[in-house]
Amino acid sequence: MTTVDKSKVPWWVSNLIVPLVNLILALFVSGLFIFIAGENPYEAVRLIIYGSFGYIEGFAYTLYYTTNFIFTGLAFAVAFHCRLFNIGGEGQAYIGGLGVFLVAINFSFLPVPIVWLLAVAGAVVFGATWAFIPAYLQATRGSHVVITTIMFNFIAASLMVFLLVDVIRDTTQMGPHTIALPEEQWFPSFEDFAALLGIKIRYSPLNISFLLAIAASVFVWFLVWKTRWGYEMRAVGHNTQAAIYAGISPYKNIIIAMCISGGLAGLLGVNEILGVHHKIVAGFPAGYGFTGIAVALMGRNHPIGIFPAAFLFGILYQGGSEVTFDMPNITRYMFVAVQGVIILFSGALENLFRPQIENFFVNRLNLKAKA
Amino acid sequence: MEFLSDIASLINSTLRISTPLVFAAMAGIFAERSGVIDFSLEGKMLMAAFVAAVGSYFLGNPWLGLLLAIIACVSLSMLHGFASVTYKGDQVVSCVAINILIIGLTTALAAAWFGQAGLTPTLNEDQRFLEVNLPFAESLRDVPIVGTIYSDILSGHYIFVYLAYLTVPLVFWAVFKTSFGLRLRAVGENPSAVDTAGINVFAMRYKALAINGVLIAFAGAHLSTAVNANFFREMSAGRGYLALAAMIFGKWHPKTALVACLLFGFTDALQIRLQGVELPAIGEIPVQLIQALPYVLTVVLLAGFVGKAIAPNAIGQPYIKER
What we know:
The complex is a heterodimer of chains A (371) and B (323).
Chain A: H1 11-36, H2 41-53, H3 56-81, H4 89-106, H5 112-141, H6 145-167, H7 190-196, H8 209-226, H9 228-238, H10 240-245, H11 250-277, H12 288-298, H13 303-326, H14 333-348, H15 354-370
Helix pairs in contact in A: 1-14, 1-15, 2-3, 2-13, 3-8, 3-11, 3-12, 3-13, 4-5, 4-6, 4-11, 4-12, 5-6, 5-11, 8-9, 9-11, 12-13, 12-14
Chain B: H1 2-33, H2 41-59, H3 62-86, H4 91-114, H5 137-140, H6 146-154, H7 159-176, H8 179-189, H9 191-196, H10 201-227, H11 239-249, H12 254-274, E1 278-279, E2 283-284, H13 287-291, H14 293-302
Antiparallel strand pairs in B: 1-2
C-alpha cells in the first residue's frame, strides 16, 4: 500500500467516488445473499425500483422512511463527531415517542400548533434523558456507551411494554397500545396536501415530519460546524488530550453530544406518533434506530451526505417490502443483512480500495498537469 | 427441605444459564487482551446458534453442527481481523456491522430455507446434545447434602456446561502461564515493543481472534442444540454484550470474569424464578420489569461501583508498523 499525499486528492474522489465504489461492492454482496436465498437478484432490483418510484404512493412511502432515517442518522452522526458510538437510537426513539404522547394527551386543551411545538420538545427531552445516563457513565466512569446504550434499548423495550400493558393501555382494545390522540392533533399528511391541490391519492404515512427532518438537518449542520460548541465537541472527538490542553472539558461535551443525539433519535417518535399511528404501538421504532448507524456512516456523518443515504435506505425499505410481497423466499430481515453489509463496506472496510482509487486519480491529474 | 431444593435448583439453573456467558467472556478475553475490541461476540454467538442448528439438522449429528459453527465463527473473526487489523478500519464499526449483518442474515436464511418466521426445524434426540448424568448420580441422590450437591446441582447438565467451566482454568493457564500468553498480553499492551522483539503483531492478533472464534461457537451451539432444540430469531438476546460487560467487570481476567458471569447467570435464574411470585411487602413485580433485571445489572456493573476497570493499553487502536 503506497500512501498518497492527502492534500492532492480532490474532494470528490474521497467523498463521492470512494463511497460509491464501497456501496457498489456492498450491493454486489447483498445480491449474492438474495441468490443464496433462492431468488433472482436482478428481479429483486427491478422490484425495488418499481416499489419505491413506480407509483405515487410508493414514492410517498419512500420519503416517509427517509424521514425516519434522517432523524436516526443525524442522531448517530452527532455523537460520532465526539467519537461516541450511540447505538441506543432505538431505545431513545421509543422513549421519545412516550414524550410525544404524554405531552399531546395532557396539553390537549391548548391550541394545536402549540401542542405540536410542545410535543416536539417532549420528544427531544425524553430521548435526551434516555441518552443521559449512558453519557454520564461514559464521561465519569468510562463505561463504554456501546454496551450501556444497547442495554438501555433492552430496558426501554421492557419499560414500554410494561407501561403499555399495565399503565397507559387502551383497556377497550385487545392489543398493547394506548388510546388514540384527538384527531385535530394529527399531523397533516401528504394526501391532505395533495387534496388541497385537487389531486386524490391513496393513503401513505408521509406527513409534515419530513419538513421537520430537513430542519433538523440544517440545525445539525449549523450546530456541529458553525458554533463554538460544535468545534469543542469535534475537538474532543479528534484528540481528547489536545482538547483538555486547550481548556475544553471532555465530560461536558460527551454529555451534551449524547443528549443531543438522543433528542434527535427521539424525533422519530414525532413522525411515528403524531404523523402515522396517532398512539403508542408496542415496538414502533422497528429497527430504524439501528439503520441510522448505516445511514450516518454512508453519509460520512454530514447532513449533506445523510440526506441521500437516508433516501437510499428509504428506497431499500419501501422497494424491499415490494420484494417481500412478490418473492416468498425474501423477508424483511434480508434488508437488515443488507444494512450490515453496507456498514461493513462503507464503515469498517472503507480503506479497502481507498489508496488505489486515490492513487489512480492523483496520477491521472498529475499527468494532465504535465501535458 | 422445600427451601433447600429451591436453592439447589436455583444454583443448577445458574450454572446452566451462565454457560454461554462463560464461553463468550473467555472468547472476549483473547480478542481484547491482544488489543482488538470485540463487540461482535453477540453476532458470532447468534451465527453459531444458527449454523449449529442447521448443520445438525442436515447432517444428523450435533458434533458436526458444532464443527460447522466453529468454522463459521472463526471466519467471522477473520473478517473482523481483516477489517480492523489488516485494513485498520474502526474496530467498533466492524463489530456493529457484523452484529447487524448476522441478525438479518440468520433470520432471512432460516425463513428462506424453512419457510417459517426465522425458525429452524426442531431437532430430534440424535441431532442434539442431551443431558449428561454423572456416574452414581442416581444412587447418591438420597445421601443428605452430598447427594443434593452431586446429583441435583452438578449432575444432569449438557456437555457444554462442563466444558465451559473446564475452559476457565485452561484460559487462565494459556494467558498467564505460557509464552504465547505473555506475547498475547504484550501485543495488547505495547505492540511496538513486541514488534521490536521480532514478534509479528498482526499474526498474534489473528491467532487470538481464531481462538476467540472457536470459543464463541460453543456458546452458540449450547443455545440451539442443547438448551433449545432449534434456532429462533435473535436467540442470543444480548448475551454477547452481557458477557463483554462481565469480562470488563472481571478486569480482562478469566477468574474474575467467571465470577461476574455467574452473577449474571444467578440474576437471570432469579428473574425466571420471581416471575409471578408474590413478594412480602412489595407484592408481585410486573414480569416486564423483572426481565429487565440482567440488563440493569450490566449497566450497574459497568459503572464500576467496585473500582474502575483498566483496559489493555493498546485496545481499539490499529497497529501501524513504522516504515
